[in-house]
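Session log. Operator J.P. requested a structure for one protein chain; no other inputs attached. Running the standard single-chain path with token output.
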Amino acid sequence: MRDIHPDLLTVFLATLKERGVEPALHTSYRKWLRYYLDFCSKYALQNTSPDTPTRFLDKLRQKRQAEWQVRQAAHAVSLHLDGIRNAGDPQKEAATKKAAETCPERPGVGEAIGQSFGKWARAHADLVAVIKTRHYSPKTLKSYVHWARKLQGFAGDQEPSALTTEDVKKFLTYLAVECGVSASSQNQAFNALLFFFRNVLQKEFGEIRDVVRAKRRPYIPVVLSRQEVDAVIRRLQPPYDLVAKLLYGCGLRLFECLKLRVQNFNFNAGVLTVHDGKGKKDRTVPLPRSILPELEAQMGRVRLLHERDMRAGYAGVFLESLLEKQYKNAPRDFVWQWLFPAKTLTFVRQSQERRRYHLHERHVQKAIKEAGGRARLTKRVSSHTFRHSFATHLLRANYDIRTIQGLLGHSDVKTMMVYTHTIPSRTLMEAMSPLDFPLPDMS
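Structure written below.
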């Protein structure tokens, strides 16, 4: 695929900024421009020719691109041609006019999409600002923006200010009927759009009735026996084995474990403090005494790595921006270093610095999945399976359910009820299958 000429790219990016296209969408717009220029090169077409945009969009439809993608591509091409026009291209009039007629089944799409996308870009920017102001987690930010963009694609040329509760109702029904999403995904979409309506569009959401809801299925978590836990851990290489031991031994979520820093550990008291867990809550859990030597050895490796990085002049670890402003030297301080640092440094373009991040979640998930396969288990093993096993094994050991709730960091004891289904009742254990009934005496 051909690269965009630097001068052409400069004009295009300036046009995107001028028209208020959300910065997060710039990568997608550049992609469509590259596709368009590649299409023109492949078929020996002039990219400013009046009929070239229409042929390009027809090609996208032949490749079964989603309609919202076709419209986004149309907007990208129209902005490209508009940028050329402003730069004084002699064929500007015909090209721009043709670009505005790119989607014949949706009249006036060229200019309408430009206005609609600009207003949606501002709405997305407002959504991000509101979420960051409320200090929601990055995952919440990602999911809420995701569903807002999905609604944008479903709404077509409709501006965000014109959306109604009926549009959301149709969208939720579409998710359940056409897309077949799970109940949790549909509920997440509902919560995201409720937040979007109230805090960005400043509209009352109203009641949502007569919506086809995805059926919530009863879920019983996968639980490993102690022997199966040990079998998986034995097949993990360092430091993934220590990660799994903390997941099982302390009942941590994966992101809580990977975000651990040196200062979270109190070896004298034998406790681990989890900061900024789910819901920005802190909690304290006991450290497994059996892995204290391994944790201290890991601390030693982190110290050696930190000293080497300091000699190399790196900028330290990543911290939240507000925290770094308050403690400017914290990124280079040993107590703020990750317990499980990434193997390589990350280059930060804005500051031209190299910093260290923690292990990536996908690497740990992949390692655990492969270890479960090598252990030849007949159960689906993931990082969260260790947390489920932690809770279930404590219940079997007759620990109070509210104590386990505190160790897991759940706000509501109702969340704990799912683990009661992982322990067979006495009646169920004593029940026999009819296949095991003795055969009747036919003599």
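Operator note: The mean pLDDT is 82.
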